[in-house]
Amino acid sequence: MAATIDKSNISLQQRQTASVFKHKQRGDGYCLALNNFVHSTVPAERYNHIRPSIHQSLYLHETKNLVLHLNRFKKLCELDSSYNYENLKGEFTKVIFELLSLPFDNISYSLTFENSVFFILLKDDFEFHLNYFFNDENYGFGEEAVLITYINGVKQPSKDDGLDDVILHLKSILNPEETYTFWL
Amino acid sequence: MALVIKYAKYICNWFKGIFSSYKTKYPNHILPSENKKLIVSDISDCLLIRHFSEKSNVPVLDGPKNYINQAYIIHPSSNISDLSTNLLGIFGYEEGKIKIVGNKLRYFNTYCQPDFKPEIPIHREDYQIEDERKFWHLMVKDVESLQVEYNSENKNSKSFLAECKVLHTPMRWNYWHFSIRWLITETNRTPFFLNDLPSNQQKRYFRKIASETRSIISMKARVVNNFTYRKIKESEYLKKVL
């Protein structure tokens, strides 16, 4: 079948794209990429039925990365009987999804003996150690993240809070000019 | 020819006997003794070691910076608020392979005065040798006096300042035992060591201190001993130098 441009779909697709932007925050790496592509270079949404849009490509890339990390996490859980992959994959997905949306050069992690995942995140001169503690209701501990920052190997003040606040803090360090908090 | 083989076997067994008796005799030089004193001198240029056992599926080095895998930094049975290490020098890698076992485990694993005269551990009954043990190394100056501050707005958390201390803490089986501990300072409270608190009161500090300990050790510790360090002098640990 010959490929044709379906113009009737354009406005609907634009509305859908706009709704995607609403859910993205400024300072988010992918938000910047989408803006560049959609507004200036590749009018991908017009040829949506012929080739995947940039958004879809990014989504696919993001999904593949996520699956890779989930598989790695599963393997780590298999090596340590105190971790149950099925119980923890939801929480882990939440953390890794946030981290994948940030422009790190490298993300590595390992499990600790304190019911947490210890991430080492590298970006240029920055080195972040993020220890994410899983929800542990049996011992009265909720979810908690501790962020330790080094710039050129020099230790900076640490931050301890819930994951959302720690990620926001992380974004403010990585990109101090482009982080906004929206109050609705 | 048969005679030569017979003599070769005899010599071989003789060497084995000497070697095994050497390995099974407890190294008395690591025990506390009357002439020893508490080490209070500046040991910032000295090196600490801590053992770990490698698991087949878990690599020792991890990530692009080849840091020691978190699984080997702190063992599950270890106490993070009072992390055990040993001062490398008179205490060497062979001594680091000693594992205290048996009925007197609690007796030997008790802190004591440096001039305490303990029982001598007996091979197989009180200790065994774990040849597969590996070690990571950490310079004292890399952790000593490290300060971390947490200003928390969370009601369940606390604002505090913690300072890392490396303290000489002799044990009945090992005079060269050193502890990495954290001195906590809070407003309106006398500074205290975290390990002195009951375990239910350590909760509020535990996750932060565990993260800091893991972070600094992963950054500074190395499996290969390529550090430039000094060995402790007799005058620093003996009451009277002979």
Tell me which protein chains meet in the greatest interface and how many residues each side has: A-B, 31 and 34 residues
> What sequence of helices (H) and strands (E) makes up the elements of chain A?
HHHHEEEEEEH
Mean pLDDT of chain A equals 76
Largest sheet of chain A: 6 strands, antiparallel
How many strands in all of chain A? 6
Counted by DSSP, the helix tally of chain A is 5
**Elements of chain B, N to C (H/E):** HEEEHEEHEEHEEEEHH
Cα Rg of chain A: 19 Å
Overall 3D shape of chain B: globular
User: Could you tell me the strand content of chain B as a percent range?
Assistant: 15-25%
Percent of residues in helices of chain A comes to 40-55%
Given as residue ranges, the uncertain stretches of chain A (5+ residues, pLDDT < 50) are 1-5, 19-50
* Terminal-residue CA separation of chain A: 47 Å
Structural class designation of chain B? alpha+beta
What value does the average pLDDT of chain B take? Answer: 90
Defining traits:
A: 184 residues, alpha+beta, 5 helices, 43% helix, globular, B: 242 residues, two-stranded antiparallel sheet, 6 helices, 11 strands
Q: What is this structure, in a nutshell?
A:
The complex is a heterodimer of chains A (184) and B (242). Chain A has helices at residues 10-22, 29-41, 54-79, 85-100, 163-174; strands at residues 106-111, 116-123, 126-133, 144-151, 154-155, 159-161.
Could you describe the 3D structure shown?
- The complex is a heterodimer of chains A (184) and B (242).
- Chain A has 184 residues and is of the alpha+beta class.
- In chain A, a hairpin with a 4-residue loop joins strand 1 and strand 2.
- In chain A, strands 1, 2, 3, 4, 5 and 6 form a six-stranded antiparallel β-sheet that branches.
- In chain A, helix 3 packs across helix 4.
- Chain A contains five helices and six strands, in the order ααααββββββα.
- Chain B has one domain.
- Helix content of chain B is 25%, strand content 23%.
- Chain B is globular, with a radius of gyration of 21 Å.
- Chain B is built from six helices and eleven strands.
- With 242 residues, chain B is an alpha+beta fold.
- The chains are: A alpha+beta (184), B alpha+beta (242).
- At the A-B interface, strand 1, strand 2, strand 3 and strand 4 of A face strand 8 and helix 5 of B.
